[in-house]
Amino acid sequence: MGDKFCVSLTCAKNDADKATVAFVVANAAVASDKETMVFLSTEGVHLATKGYATGIHEEGFSPLQELMDSFVKAGGKIFVCSPCYKKRGYTEEQVISGGTIVGGAKLVEFLTSDGGSPCITY
Amino acid sequence: MESSALSGGDSPDIDDEWDAGQMGCGELVMLLAGRMKALKAGQVLKLVALDTGALEDIPAWCRMTGHTLVSSGHPHYFIQRRQDKNGR
Questions:
Q1: Which of A103, A108, A109 comes nearest B54 by C-beta?
Q2: pLDDT of residue A52
Q3: In this complex, is the C-beta atom of A75 within 8 Å of any C-beta atom belonging to chain B?
Q4: A13-16, long-range: CB within 8 Å, 24+ apart, which pairs?
Q5: Does residue A96 have a pLDDT over 90?
Q6: CA dist., res. B38 & res. A25, Å (int)
């Protein structure tokens, strides 16, 4: 069984349900000792901005901010699509702790190195 | 920013230079691949890439393609072309 796990997330407040479940699954993976990375692209990059996730709370789940904080605290990585972030007018100074701005090559390396990584998309 | 071998003023000798400006992500590495292909094995390209993603992308791209990142200090990257698989 592989040691890495990727969760690709392409939405934020426009689909808070999916955004929340994505981080629930990511927390499950990191808690299962997987090297886990959440890839935020398109609308998902909003979540990489400080303060954005505050107040997103889907019924039946923990608040999204809590899920994200616990993910990062447990060693999870958050990759943020660089052109998607720039396109929405954000700057690197706004990126949350635990978030890293990357381009496609970094994503491809994560998914293909060391035996590869499964990836689930929300 | 990454520590830089350039800060000491001892930049590697270069054979080509490319200012990619704000270009990033897939577009950057596609054109970078073409630039590297035009070099001979062992030659060095100086890349200037302002996109923040380059900090993670260029080292990752070099690890995947087998080119050598000789030194870097964002936004400057010195990349040495790999040997071809047929030994060229």
A1: A103
A2: 98
A3: no
A4: A13/A46, A13/A52, A13/A56, A14/A43, A16/A56, A16/A58, A16/A64
A5: yes
A6: 44
| Total domain count, chain A | 1
- CATH number where A84 lies: 3.40.1260.10
Query: How does pLDDT run across A56-69, given as a tens digit for each residue?
Result: 999 989 999 999 99
Our count of domains for chain B comes to 1
Partner B contacted by A101 (CB < 8 A)? yes
Q: Read off the DSSP letter of residue A95.
A: B
B42: domain CATH number is 3.30.110.40
Closest Cα to residue A70, out of A46, A110, A38? A38
Q: What is the total residue count of chain B?
A: 88
**B8: Cβ contacts below 8 Å, ≥ 6 apart:** none
Residue B6 has pLDDT above 50, yes or no: no
User: How close does chain A come to B57, measured CA to CA in Å?
Assistant: 5
Whole-angstrom distance, CA of residue A64 vs CA of residue A16: 9
Taking CB atoms and an 8 Å limit, are B28 and A103 in contact across chains?
yes
Prediction ipTM score? 0.70
Buried b (16+ CB within 10 A) or exposed e, B54-64: bbbbbbbbbee
pLDDT digits 0-9 by tens, B39-77: 999 999 999 999 999 999 999 999 988 999 999 999 999
Q: Tell me whether residues B24 and A83 touch, CB distance under 8 A.
A: yes
Q: A93 at the B interface (CB within 8 A)?
A: no
